[in-house]
Amino acid sequence: MQAIRTVFRGIRPLDVLITAGLTFLGVVLMRMQVGMPVGVPKDGVTIDSNSVWLYLYLIAPLAVLWWRRSAIAVVLVAIAVVLLHTVLFGEIVRCGAGLPLVFVLSFLTGYQDDRTRAWQGLAAVEVLVCLVLVRDAEVGLGIAPVVGAMCAGGWWVAGLARRRTSLAAELRVRNDELRALRDQRAQLEVTGDRVRVSGELDSLLDRRLRQLTTLAEAGARTEDPAAARALLTRIENEGRHTLDEMRTVVGRLRGGDVALSPAPSVAHLDALLAQHGSRLVVTGDPRALSASVELSAYRIVEHLLAVLDRDGDPPVDVRMDFERGALEVTVTGRVSRGADVRDAIARARERARLQEGTLHVKLSRGRARAVAHFPVTA
How many CA atoms are closer than 13 Å to the CA of 153, on its beta-carbon side? Predict the structure, then answer.
């Protein structure tokens, strides 16, 4: 099996199509002559042989399958086959299948990158033209100059096509290189901006800490309670202002907007589900949970909704059951086509594991049902 794969490695569907067409012409032409009388003119054509061995000619077009490995080798095989065919069977009609073969081979040899071998291939094709026509019962060598010129024209056109293809490939490579350089430059600019912003953050902290230290020292020296309270209030306000400025600078360092909103919780699930045309069903005795549990529950639902079809029928169903000492979240829906379900389940399961919980998922007939169980303290 490996040997067969090696033999046919590199053959493309277009090669098979071209070979099939040339072989079909050879089969039709040889079959017509196998049934013709030898030495008797028929429709102005007299042949020397009607042996079934005429089909040996088919080796020549079949060799075209491997032209990508060596086009000139295929031409040499065709020369050998046609020469043997001519010696064995003499004058028969070969032009009907031989001329399409030489036209195809002239193009294939001209399509090579190595121009020296391309010129050698053209010379070999011209020899093949003469062999096809020298003992042809229909046309003969009289049209050899015309056919040779046509082959040279096809060879030249193939060279132009090859150069254009090479140029397009080179342009694609250059574009990829320029795109990579552009990305590198953008990355360097981002890195430079982050270094600058880091310096700003360092200066901000240094300045604010010196201000707070000065205020604290002033408060330690005062004996007026009202003045001390006013200083403490000012220190608190300055501290809050410093935190706000730090948050802004850190957000710029991250390269995105500053996240000032609180972490999502189960209270935000209604807004999330509204985007999917679904609603949340709550059972049991709802109660406040720890922030980490609520965040994990929200993230699990978010990960699973990302791979479920929001337009599915029935729609996505999300249920939360507050049990004694536990929270159970159930998400059911139809899986979107092409969604990365494994990745979503892995992320959701990791979220459950962080809270010492479990996640069980069942997939059946394009639908998914996930149940997350969190142990919570009363």
Answer: 6
